Amino acid sequence: MYEIFFFVNPIGINCYESEQAIINAIDDSKKKVDYHFIPMANMTTIRNDIKAHKLPTCDLDLFNRISRNTFNAIKNYHTVKLMKGNKLARKFLLKLQSEINDNHRQYSKQLIDQILNELNVNKESFDKTRQMKYTLFSMNKDLQLAKQFKVETTPTTFIYNYDEVDNNFMIEGKVNEEEVSVALNTPAREKKYGTNNLHLI
């Protein structure tokens, strides 16, 4: 059995592309895989995403706006997760990232309301849940997990094979489908690494 922990900037372009690669690799592998998206952000991850969008990193107003949007997106994700579970929270995250990165929409309250409506999430219940202390507790649990894994940048992916204790991997940076397929489908003694991103842990 495999378990994947994917630490992600909730509105980041590289994270969105990596999430799609992970999901495709899991689907192709036909293996039992539990996977978790863990949205997180810090100054480094936000600056890296600004660079990925080819925007100026020295614009303080831009940095503050993207920071607010990022942390609001994290809180919204946890709100949906508490209300509807992990599966719908992942759908929420992917829809949000698709709107921002594919359709070039700006993060806004109107966009969040649209996505909640598409997912049949009651807006009044969402607003109440968002203000509950359990939402902050859920966010803090993920923050502690990031500290435990010593994650400093996004995307960062951990792939654990519980049938082979020496066959666990970390991928720092953008993930491609081939890297995940290699980690999921090849015994440790036969693995050949095609990129510097894939590391045994």
Molecular structure report:
The protein has 201 residues and is of the alpha+beta class. Helix content is 56%, strand content 13%. It has eight helices and five strands, in the order E-H-E-H-H-H-H-H-H-E-E-H-E. The chain has a five-stranded mixed sheet with strand order 2-1-3-4-5, with helices on one face. The longest helix is centred in the middle third of the chain and has 25 residues, at 60-84. It starts with a strand and ends with a strand.
Give a quick summary of the entry:
The protein has 201 residues and is an alpha+beta fold.
Number of E strands: 5
Strand order of the largest sheet: 2-1-3-4-5
CA-CA gap between termini: 17 Å
Residues in helices, as a percent range: 55-70%
Rg estimate, integer Å:
17 Å
The secondary structure category is alpha+beta
Q: In percent, how much strand structure appears in the residues?
A: 5-15%
- Main pleated-sheet profile: 5 strands, mixed
Shape estimate: globular
Order of helices and strands: EHEHHHHHHEEHE
Mean pLDDT: 87
Uncertain ranges? 189-194
Number of helices: 8
Tags for this model:
201 residues, alpha+beta, 8 helices, 5 strands, 56% helix, globular
Question: How are the SSEs ordered, and which strands pair?
Answer:
Layout: E1 2-8, H1 13-29, E2 33-39, H2 43-52, H3 60-84, H4 86-101, H5 109-118, H6 123-130, H7 133-149, E3 156-161, E4 169-172, H8 177-185, E5 198-200
Parallel strand pairs: 1-2
Antiparallel strand pairs: 1-3, 3-4, 4-5
